[in-house]
Write a structure and sequence with these properties.
GO terms for molecular function: fumarate hydratase activity. By secondary structure, the protein is of the alpha/beta class. It is 27% helix and 26% strand. It contains six helices and seven strands, in the order E-H-E-H-E-H-E-H-E-H-E-E-H. It has a five-stranded mixed β-barrel. The protein starts with a strand and ends with a helix.
Length: 185
Amino acid sequence: MDKKITTPLTEEKIKDLKAGDSVLISGTIYTARDAAHKRLVELLDKEEALPIDMKDTIIYYVGPSPAKPGQVIGSAGPTTSYRMDSYAPRLLDIGLKGMIGKGIRSEEVVNSMKKNKAVYFAAIGGAAALMGKSIKKADLVAYEDLGSEAIRKLEVEDLPVVVVIDSEGNNLYEQGQMNYLQSLK
């Protein structure tokens, strides 16, 4: 059974999310990939304001394709998350609570997630058109020069994701591998 959550993603909502849970997200989320993350951290280094408030926010690691006529957005499949790992702890420290992408995360990111009570979701790789259908509105927020990697504010309805790493550090990728290896014995 899917759990349904609506943003903002507060600690109260996060504590009920466990590795392996299927979740449908509705509300406001933001897009950002590595180029945008680099700029955000540079702003933090200069003690300047960010273009978005990170408190209780979810960032989707995506560079959507251009919208076709009559569509809000094009295909919107997840980007490999480790590309954001050198930046994520800084954003988690200032209130980021959820990240959506695909693939493993570094130990540093997992430790920062536990410290800051955050969660990592996996989106369905290879189903970019399906993911795009959950996006009801998309507005450019910052870094237009980055093209598809610009920061966008998305309004989503029932965006399907899976909790891969919960706020306690439980990791579905590791658990799945262990369960498989146990089944071979």
